[in-house]
Every structure is written in C-alpha cells, then in structure tokens.
Design goal:
This protein is an alpha/beta fold. The protein folds into 3 domains: 39 residues; 208 residues, Rossmann fold, CATH 3.40.50.300; 175 residues, 2-Layer Sandwich (Ribosomal Protein S5, domain 2), CATH 3.30.230. It contains 11 helices and 23 strands.
C-alpha cells in the first residue's frame, strides 16, 4: 500500500510543530503563525554493518591542515572574517532590507574577480539585467563574475558545481524553493532544507558559500534563527538608513574572532571602507559644546573613539521623557539613578536624551563614564575640554570599576590627539607608560566630576 503523506502545523516564528492547528503557538506565544506543511521523507538510516565500521579517532592522531584562506582585497571584510574566506565555509549575512547586503556581496565578488578568481552570484530577487545595472554602478569590469536568476534549489546546486568557483553568493535564502517541500518559499521548512543542502555542498566540494538573509522586526534572520547553528560564520550588516555608515559585525565565527567589526561608508558608487573609524566619528564634533564627551569603545580587537551626546532639559509633562539612541536604555537609567544618589543632583525629573554620534551602537559597560560625564555636562551646562577622553564602568555605589583592553584604548586616544585620559584607578598598574598623554586614575564618580568641572 502507498503510504499517506503526513502533515503537521509548523510555527513560522519559532519552528514549533503541532499535530493540529492552534490560534496561538504553544512555544513562543505568537498568534496566527501555524501553517500546515507536509513532512519530508526521513533520510536513510545507516546499515548495521556501516555502524560497526564507524570508529572514533584519537585527537592526537589527526593531521591538522592549515585552513586555506582567500583574501578578498577588502581589508574591512577580511578583518571580520578573521583574515579572509576559508575554503568550504558557509557564511550567513543578515541585515535589514535595503541596508546594502547585496551591494556588499557584489563588491566582494568584484574584488575577487580582479584577482582572476571565478565567482557565482545567484539572485532570487532580481533579473540578470538588473544585476548588471547595479554592477555597472559599483565596478567597471566583472569578467570573472557569473550571474544567474534562479530560485529552484536543485538547479542552484547544479549551477554551483559546474565550475570551480572561489565563492558563491545566494541572494537571498528566503527565495530558494525546494519542490519536495509543500510549504511556500521563506517558510521554516524551506529555509532549513535549503541551508542543509548548501552546507553539504560547501563541505563536500570546498566551495565558500554566502547566504544572504533579511532581518525581521524582532531582529531574527529569516524569521526564527534556524540557520545560525548550521553555518560557520554569522555576520550582521547594521546601520541606520539615515546615516551613511554601515557596520559589518561578526557574532559567530568558527575560524576567527567573534564580535569583530568592519566599518563602511555608503556612497553613490557603493560601499567604501573606513580604515580609521575614530577619525570619521569625531570629525564633526563641536568644540566646547556642553553634553558632548569622547569615550573609547572596543569592537572585537579594535578600539574606536565615539562621541556620546547627552541632553538634560526641563520636562513639560508629568512623567519625564527618556529617548536613548545607540546605548542600552536600562544602563542609562541605572547611571541616572547613581548620579542622583551619589552626586546629589536632581536629574530624574528632567527629560533625558542620549545619542551616539554616527549611528554607532554601544553595549559595553566601559562607556558608562562617558554617559555620566555627558549628562553632567548638560545638567551643569559646562563643556568637557576637547583634549579629554573618559573610560570606565560605573557601579551602583558610585565606584569606577576596571575595564578590559585598557592599553589599546589609551593608545587609540593618544593617536587621535587627546592629551588627557581619565580611567579607573585599578587599571593604572596594567598599563605601560604612553607618550604624549596624561593618564588620571580615579576611584569614584564624584572625583570625575571634580576633575571635569572644577
């Protein structure tokens, strides 16, 4: 007898499966996200003889081969990948629609093409003529870039194996369609099946494959984060469309450092690398402006100077406003409470506005002292001197706690022309003498205010 097809209801937000339809997903609580999908036939199991032949290998007996890396020629991109593209790696690039993911990947392929390496760009969203129009704006020649407009999974796998490509880009993973799955393109089942097939291809043939995925409202790539555990590297392309700067951030990398970033500037002719982000982010800083403070942030192994802006003004409403851009709102609320308690200033009833210039997002606690200094500068309406930078974490008792990578931060501060840096006192013994800069160690928040505003 012919077996009947089995169907399940699968949540498009988290991937949870249930035997019957429900209005609300029992796993994530999302409403109206369960859709009916046919279960794919299970893969063939390994025979008993095959299982007996599989034996574990001692780690000491494994011969380690140096991973082959292809340098793209784009230093900011290579930095994020850990020094170039590793052969046989599967790389996921996520970001908001229209942020510049396709532009970035075309420029990477163009850079490889200039080195004489064959690359393949497969788009499920544009025709080949549209890709040509965009490529003509970004680069002059594309001799070694081969393009195809295709969404069928089997056809894409066949195209990727026709030549010995040094890189393959799938733009985007949401458009890839497997006819064997009854669900629509972009669903959990389709994305999972396509990702598994691309993973097999990259490992068996040694082809580096880039999967482009859009980020949804909740910040997940292609809905649920069902691909991130399969791929070798996860890169997020961040930035505000109203700003010209874009940040490529690594959040997972099996072949390099995580949380590394590359900075790009969006221009008419595409993305341009920013080798010195500190200079760019501070280029428009006004001299002697109350509420503006320079702090040193670490992004992976790279120190970056950022301008933290604060504004404390009288509130016209019963409850004061809190508008925070580029910083953790909970962290800012904590620092406001510490300032009110330890500095004895009545800042809570005021409207508080915080911003990191340039559209940068800062999450580390080393920026705490910069937040407190910017708010105090605005509250007292007294500017912080242009030659001063601050680094430090603020504790609940008003103490200034030590931070990591202090020497790298101070060297960046000195390189950018600042001649005074305020740091936690416990970090003083961790650094060697650095020329042309005065380092001041402090233990409490009150000491900082006395130095900046005496």
């Amino acid at each position: 007898m012919k077996k009947k097809d089995k169907f399940v209801f699968q949540c498009q937000a988290c991937g949870c499966q249930t035997p019957k339809w429900m209005g609300q997903c029992p796993e994530c609580g999302a409403w109206d996200t369960l859709t009916e999908e046919k279960l794919l036939s299970s893969p063939k199991t390994i025979s008993k003889l095959g299982r007996l032949q599989i034996k574990p290998v001692a780690m000491d007996s494994i011969e380690l081969e140096e991973a082959e890396r292809n340098m793209t020629g784009m230093d900011e991109f290579d930095r994020v990948l850990g020094g170039g593209i590793v052969a046989g790696s599967l790389i996921l690039i996520g970001g908001d629609p229209g942020i510049g993911k396709s532009t970035l990947m075309l420029q990477v392929l163009a850079s490889l093409s200039d080195q004489g390496k064959k690359t393949l760009y497969i788009s499920g969203e544009e025709s080949v003529s549209q890709i040509k129009m965009r490529g003509k704006r970004l680069f002059s020649r594309g001799t070694n870039i081969f393009v195809a407009a295709q969404t069928d999974l089997e056809t894409i796998l066949a195209l990727a194996q026709q030549e010995k490509y040094k890189a393959v880009v799938i733009d985007s993973i949401q458009t890839v369609f497997n006819p064997e799955a009854s669900s629509t393109p972009g669903s959990v089942t389709q994305i999972r099946e396509a990702s598994m097939e691309f993973m097999k291809l990259s490992k068996e043939k040694g082809i580096p494959i880039f999967l482009v995925g859009h980020v949804t409202k909740v910040g997940a790539i292609a809905g649920p984060r069902i691909m991130e555990h399969m791929v070798d590297t996860v890169l997020y392309f961040e930035g505000d469309k109203s700003h010209v700067f874009r940040i490529l951030r690594s959040v997972k990398n099996r072949f390099g450092s995580t949380n590394e970033i590359g900075v790009f500037e969006m221009k008419t002719a595409g993305l341009e690398q920013v080798p010195n982000p500190s200079a760019v982010f501070l280029s428009e800083r006004l001299a002697n402006a109350p509420g503006s403070v320079v702090a040193a942030s670490m992004e992976g192994t790279r120190p970056i100077l950022i301008e933290i802006q604060g504004l404390a003004s009288s509130s016209g409403f019963g409850s004061p406003r809190r508008t925070i851009l580029g910083l953790d709102p909970n962290r800012v609320a904590l620092i406001i409470s510490v300032m009110e308690k330890r500095l004895e200033i009545n800042i809570s009833p005021l409207d508080i506005f915080m911003n990191v210039a340039g559209g940068v997002k800062v999450t580390e606690t080393a920026a705490d002292l910069g937040i407190a200094s910017a708010l105090a500068s605005s509250f007292f309406n007294r500017p912080v001197k242009d030659n001063v930078a601050v680094i430090g974490e603020v504790g609940l008792t008003g103490e200034i706690r030590a931070v990591a990578h202090i020497e790298s931060r101070i060297k960046e501060v000195s390189k950018m022309g600042f001649n005074k840096c305020i740091i936690p006192k416990n970090n003083i013994k961790q650094i060697r003498k650095i020329k042309n800069i005065e380092i001041i160690g402090i233990s409490f928040l009150k000491e900082v205010m006395e130095i900046l505003f005496r």
